[in-house]
Amino acid sequence: MNCRSEVLEVSVEGRQIEEAMLAVLHTVLLHRSTGKFHYKKEGTYSIGTVGTQDVDCDFIDFTYARVSSEELDRALRKAVGEFKDALRNSGSDGIGQISLEFYQKKKSRWPFSDECIPWEVWTIKVNVVNLVSEQERQICREKVGEKLCEKLINIVEVMNRHEYLPKMPTQSEVDNVFDTSLKDVQPYLYKISYQITDSLGSSVTTTMRRLIKDTLAL
Amino acid sequence: MDTDLSSQDRKDLDKFIKFFALKTVQVIVQARLGEKICTRSSSSPTGSDWFNLAIKDIPEVTHEAKKALAGQLPAVGRSMCVEISLKTSEGDSMELEIWCLEMNEKCDKEIKVSYTVYNRLSLLLKSLLAITRVTPAYRLSRKQGHEYVILYRIYFGEVQLSGLGEGFQTVRVGTVGTPLGTITLSCAYRINLAFMSTRQFERTPPIMGIIIDHFVDRPYPSSSPMHPCNYRTTGEDNGATYPSVEDSQEVCTTSFSTSPPSQLSSSRLSYQPAALGVGSADMGYPVIFAGGLNAAHPHQLIVPGKEGGIPPVLSQPAHGTQADHERMAMCTPLDGALYSAATPSSSEDTETVSNSSEGKSGSPHDLLETIFVRKVGAFVNKPINQVTMASLDIPFAMFAPKNVELEDNDPMVNPPDSPDVESPLQGSLHSEGSSGSSTGNTHDDFVMVDFKPAFSKDDILPMDLGTFYREFQNPPQLSSLSIDIGAQSMAEDLDSLPEKLAVHEKNVREFDAFVETLQ
């Protein structure tokens, strides 16, 4: 099975990074979350209810709807916060990308650990711009708002292609497909990772690897 | 073929489609309320949350939607449409969006109704939640209140996109294949708003009072169909409570099975054909008729949208002329076939069509043309009566042509100091004696008519604005612009160039230092 990969690109000002990322990630997770499953006898289950709430952005002329789950929001904010800090510390030409990967766990026999097989990856490439005047910032607010509108329309279009989704699991398998740790909603298993590219165009990880190799080679 | 679908599946599918349509309307209308929406997630299924989404049911909206559907379901050629429009406090209106729930013939026979279709409809509703915040009308609706309100109308039948103006854009929210056809949800929205953006509505001064003739002798119609805070349909059961969805005995599917469908436990579905009330399938009454194509109307953005079908504008001589009801009442034949020939009800007032052969019947118009506000809505802080307040303190009231008695005392009209010939009465905003000559030096050939500019009063300054204007209307030409002098100075300039260059070279350091301070 191939992993579906979608890439979005945005150019934002430093202070807009968090809100822009949260808007995109929350929109994806809104579509990839269900209510909590309650398994009953005879292999049936019922599904809880997912609430939504609107979030106004402070630095972008934009509002998005997210799942009403404080736990989920906290998890995303933590990941986005780390990404933002890494991006801003990388230097003035901040380019980076954050990825939201949905995966399934496949149990392997001991001593092998469980495999994580991704089935959908959303990558957001971020280009941080530096603006000087207030007027530019105001224009940026609106422009980024419009761009995010376009991105959300793209996301919705992908979601409604109804391509591969993991089969609904039995009770014993549910943790291989869904993240059941939250108490109010149940998103598909996901992980968030990020990568920062410094101004030389190479990523930090490859630079480190090269340094270590060079050191070891001496 | 229907025979391929079991009767239970068929019933389920019809129910899903019906409730999907009702929830779609709720999501769209709630997204245009002007407030942020917040509902809670619940880990335990309640049985009344269709599609496992917490979407509140506003009874009035459900009632309207059921009335529009009139017992039918979206099918091929019969789409359910929610029209979102904007109405200014002056009565001008403009369609912003049309959300369409359509069905086409492309069937997916293999799909499982009570599982896959249900989940995909749920996904489609989530997409709708996302997309309703993304179209331009969302930001407008968040700022509605004093200057304008957002209205909705639900109709069933053929989609009417002509009111959106030219170049409208479409966004497809999504599709769900079913054994009976493919459900498509899309939105067509006006785009010429995008240039105006919400800034237009933030920064323009209050609408009321600028165009004076809209308000003379005609206070803002408080008897209009716009209802503050409470949804009421005149002539109908005022004060009646609308049955909420929970009151009906239709319970949504909450049980699913991981095993094949044949083992699905009884799903507690009890299908009741909805007892829907009045309304024909084609209640296609346009809600609002456009205001006039007034070139000086501050909300010109309303104008372009109506270019498609507007009859020629009544010519607008000067603004100061009588407050014409006709000006407001430009009939926009969005689709003439849908107009009823009934006479307008008294509640229409002069705000709407003056064309006697076309009009709207009173009560359906009232039903459909409402400000949609909940009990906590756009007007909660500002009762609609306050909208009329501005008509009482319009800035140019003293120039209102109808106030004849004021004009005798108006110093503008009878200037004590003016040496000029007395002019006929000019109490209007834009003086018709604006004379004098628009062309410069031939004012001697004209009959001297008093020029009475606004804002100036004779008793304060010895020379009033009009006199000043007239005297300095024909200034002499600038010397540098005349050709002879130009030619002379050119020669002089050329001669003096070397000297100037020498001087500048001496001061090179100063110039450099100056340039550095700029960097």
Automatic annotation (TrEMBL), chain A:
GO terms for biological process: autophagosome assembly. One of its GO terms (cellular component) is Atg1/ULK1 kinase complex. InterPro entries: ATG101. Its main location: other. It comes from the Eukaryota. Keywords: Autophagy. It is found in: Preautophagosomal structure. GO terms for molecular function: protein kinase binding. Belongs to the ATG101 family. PANTHER family: AUTOPHAGY-RELATED PROTEIN 101. This is Autophagy-related protein 101. It comes from Pelodiscus sinensis (Chinese softshell turtle). The lineage of its organism: Eukaryota, Metazoa, Chordata, Craniata, Vertebrata.
